[in-house]
Every structure is written in structure tokens, then in C-alpha cells.
């Protein structure tokens, strides 16, 4: 069994201490290698983070974006930019300063991309985007006078977008620095009308807007143009992290949405693990998605970043919060950590309610929650649920993770989505698993498959209705190659890379900085029901 002795020793020390806050400081000092002489404010902020009670009084109904994307920002960039004396003039000077400070290793592949991003930023300085109308002017039901006017208006937008600069589609290997480079670009952009968002969160926002508009308007109402206008009004430069298309609903929405966004002069910068030609590969009705690929290739410069280096795997020190294999000792270790983190405070069962959905949290205390893999990855949950979860919980304990394979691809896909949500929010993951991180995903079938029961997502059924996708046809196509797991195998690599980084000592320093900057406190909390 691989049980990190440093962690267990720290837990023992924690238990033998009477003073919880100072002991907690020691706990983090030891596990995450934070120097004891390190800024005491940081340690105080960790303590207050763990003492903080969750705010449960704010109930929200959907009026706009589902996710506050400021919480999805890369903390590395915050960490790096706020703590290094650097010139604020552009991505190249930022990159130079990071290399000079030793925080980033000089990388010739990254260097060529940062030069491209610098040119792009220079071009954007002179960009005068077209005027975008108000959402309410875009009721495009052609049976109404507004609809007819809207059609005329769309034609005029089309002409005005001709001079918009090309964006960038940056694709390549896992962990090669795509997000870091995009963040350097984004953070140095002087424009205010910009938005940086994880692609999952962006699509959830779009789904929610579609549903909201469809419910409030006519049957024949086309929600895409007004949504595009609203998005363009708020951000003329849109930066997406991890562009990926794995489902038909997203494919059909994107085809139209991108067309409308580009017509409104929006410039898209995105990272992805896939070349545009490989997006939604083997997907149902893929032919209908090809125009979207062509549009991306037309409106974005396509660049690869294939340095062959996964920087996440270069880190040497780990925090030891990943326990394997599954046995009584590992299970006891997880329970001990949970008790330690929640000591003297009430552990409750909770029900999170949002957008007409609910998510059960079996054991929780402040911003710490504990689940089994079965509870979190074998239920019909989606990115929306996991992003909601990380609004509340900054530390997740996840037990009994099985080795995953293509038979368990629904569970694997959910687990990967969960890891993405935790990673993007700089959350802490403490877990117990059947195998080491490197062996967590396999293409072999597993004996566990019979134990787990995949179900379909009700969220997607609603969405298919909203975008008028024929579900019967989807069912007929369930043997389509997209269900062979090719996408999952690809995503496994990214998840492994991220899990490794999340087990590293450097990860905790990011968590500390997040706590220091107030964590998720800016996010409106949805309804929570205490179950006792
Ligand atoms: N040149 C570098 N020197 C040191 N660390 C780096 C360098 N480039 C990237 N990193 C670090 O490696 C990690 C992975 O980088 P990043 O998230 O940007 O990769 P990515 O290509 O976007 O990965 P993915 O495809 O999985 O999303 C981050 O913690 C980042 O700060």
C-alpha cells in the first residue's frame, strides 16, 4: 500500500494537538511544504478558510450566466502575475519575466506561440468592433415585425464583420502550457470587453440561456442570435480553455452560435487537445458540424504546441493525498483525514438545489465534502452538477475509485469532468483508488463494470428538446464510433496529468492563494437544504 508517511505523521500530530488552528497551519506546512516562516497571513487565511461556515442563505434563480468564470481562471497566472515583478506590457514581456524569475522554463515551442499571441494582441489594439444591438431587438420570429427587422439587421452585421482580426486555435499535447500561454495573453489584454472561460462552463451557460429564452418566448423562437448578441456585447474577445465537442447537442448549438458570434465581430482564442479537423470525430450527424470546423479554420489561425513535454509530470514532490490500493488501511486513512478536517464541527447531509436540479452531498462540513465514487460518478450527473459542487466545496474526499476502462466509459467521462471542474477551481482532492494514478485508466475491461450502473442524463434530455434534436435518432446511433471510447481514451491522458499536478506540493500553494483572495466567496450560493 502506498500511504505517504509524511501525511500520516502529520495527521497523528494533528490529533495529538489541542490547538486546532495552529496545528492546521502545521498540517499544511508539512504536507504542502509551506515554509513555517512563510507569510503568516497566508496561514491565517487557510485557517479561516477551514473555519469558515458556508453561506447558505442566498437562493438564486437563473437570470444570466450559470458560472462565474472568474472562479475558473487559472490561479497559476494569478499566482505568477501577482507575485512576480514583471512588466505589464504584453505576453512576451510577461513570459520573459517568468523565465527570468525561474518560475517557468524557457521552451522554444512556447516561445513561438507567445510571439504569435503578442502579434495578435498588437493587432487587436487597433480593432474597432462593430456595433451590437440589444438582445430585445432580436426577436427573430419572422411572423413578427421585430423578426423581419432582425433579419435585415443580421445581414448588416454580416457585412460589418469583414475586418475583424483572426483569432487563434491552439492545440496540442496535454500539459504543454497552452492554458498558461492563453492566460498570459488574456491577462495582458488592455481591452475591457473580454471574457476567459472554461469551455464546459461556457456551454452550460449557453444551454441555460437557450432554455430560459425558449421557455419565455414563442415555439418558433430562435434563441441563438440574441444569445450571440448578448455574448458579443459583453465580450468581443472570447478566450476558451479546452475546446472540445463530445455531444450532439453542443455540436448543433456551436455550429450556429459561432456563425452568429463571428458575424458580430467576436474574436475567438482557444486551447484544445484536438486539431479542428478531429473535433467531434465520429460524432452523430457529424456532417452537420463540418461547417463549424470550416468556420473555425477560416476565423482562427490554427497552431499546434507539440513540445512533447508534459510539465505536470516534471514535478517531483507530491503531497500524498492519493491512497491506493483499496483496503481497510486506505479507507481508514481517508476517514481519519475527514475527521481531522471536520473536527468538532457538525457533519451533515446536504441537498444542493439549482436550475431545477438537485445534488445530494452525503457528508459535508463547511467547504469539505466526502463522497464515494459510486455517489459522484455513477449517477446521472454532468458538468453542470460538478461545477455547482465546486462553488460550495473546496476540498473533496472521494473514496473507492475503481480502475476505469471503456466498459466504464460513462463513469470515466464523469470522473474526468469532475477532475476538470476541481482542477479549474483549484480545489483539493483527497482520494482512495484501486490503482496508482498511472494505472487508473485502462483499455482492458474490468470486473467492476457489472457493479456499476450507467444512466442517462436528464439534463441532456431537456437540452435535446431545446435544440430540437431527435432523440430517437440518437438512440439508433448509439453504436456510432463516438461511443467506442476514442474520446475517453484521449481524455484519460489529460486527467492523469491533472491528477498528478493536483497531488503536487505546488498545488497547495495555489490553494493557499485562492483562500487568500477569498476563494469562492464571490459566487452566489444556490439553495441548500440541510438533511440533518
Ligand atoms: N515552460 C514551463 N515551465 C514550467 N512550468 C510550465 C511551463 N509551461 C507550463 N507549465 C506548467 O505546467 C502545467 C500545465 O500547463 P497548462 O495547464 O498550461 O497545460 P495545457 O497544455 O493547457 O494542458 P491541458 O491540455 O491538460 O489542458 C501548469 O501548471 C503550468 O503552469
UniProtKB/TrEMBL annotation:
PANTHER family: AFG1-LIKE ATPASE (PTHR12169:SF6), ATPASE N2B (PTHR12169). One of its GO terms (molecular function) is ATP binding. This is 18748_t:CDS:1. Belongs to the AFG1 ATPase family. It holds the Pfam family AFG1_ATPase. Keywords: ATP-binding, Nucleotide-binding. GO terms for cellular component: mitochondrion.
